[in-house]
Amino acid sequence: MRLRNTETNTVQPLERRPQPVGLYVCGITPYDTTHLGHAFTYVVFDVLVRVLRAAGQPVRYVQNVTDVDDDIIRRARELGTTWDHLAEKETALYVEDMAALNVRAPDVFPRASQTIPKILELIVRLEAQGHAYQRDGNVYFRVGSVADYGRLSRLSREEMITLSAQRGADPNDPRKQDPLDFVLWQASAPDEPRWESPWGMGRPGWHIECSAMALEYLGPQVDVHGGGADLIYPHHESEIAQSESVTGIRPFARLWVHVGMLRYHGDKMSKSLRNLVLIRDLLRRYDADSIRVLLLRHHYREPWEYTEDQLDDAAAWTKRLRAAASRSHSGSRDGVQAVQAALEDDLDSPRALSVLEDALVSGDGTWRAAADLLGLRLGAPEGEGIEMKKALGWRAPFS
After folding, report:
1. What are the angstrom distances between the C-alpha of 132 and each of 116, 206, 294?
2. Distance CA 375, CA 352 (A)
3. pLDDT per residue over 339-362, tens digit each?
């Protein structure tokens, strides 16, 4: 398996080994899920895990739920509900959508609110090391204590300040020693999620949540860390700084794998812009295979714009593929090996789909194993509801 590492901007090998590959993927912030952009990211990593395991490589896959977040608090107030009720409801919907798309469950599916003791432990250690400081019940990471902050994003200081303001931070916070310093812990109002801490009642910042969950479930170094390309800065940049500072181990992630942004009507598909194409709406008109084919026709690093005609074309192509699958019978291994080879080449899913089509047209009877690498059923029997979720490893959220 070879993957492009964002940090080095080169395609690097992920060597096979007896022990599990540790994979951490930044998961949903559950206040309005699941849109097509979410599906693109999690289908991509679903394929990665399928290919690694098919090759005999064990994987420990951790995907978090960011259930403590300012956006959840704001959305809960708008809806007249509580943050935890909203998070539980939206996470349950996400699980339903992922199961419907034949996405296998991660091995560990933690939520930030379950990881508060680990978060507090890390912040206390960072403060003792001189990497963090406290002001008025808030604790900030001191970016100046890290010599190479910015090495992942390769942005200038000015670009980082501008982008951090666009993505939820406040460079003008007067309590900060540096506009780039970021929140590790913040004081909470009585109606906000809050826990006791050495600095008063409060809640964690966004970046420290993921560091805590990665370190808790995968140890001090992650083999592959993934997520959407919009997380490179400030989220993943800040994860590197605080994780390496607290553990002393570099690099925090051996490979950083980022999925391109999905646009709709000219803008990035996002909850904040309200230009969402929801999976549950698409599933009323299209089958799961067609939606996966639409997504996998695009290389995972490729930013692209969604239009409905693309999905219509993917559905027509999938229908032809399914018809060919019903006629295939011979036992050659060429098809599955060629699909595997394409996916091991930096997850080249467009080429893998083309190879799968060729195998089916030629009557290759191994099409089912080849299709399974891409998560396509192509007419294979499937369960419904709870049975399907159980088969894919999904359990009730927060159980």
Report:
1. 18, 15, 45
2. 12
3. 999 999 999 999 999 999 998 888
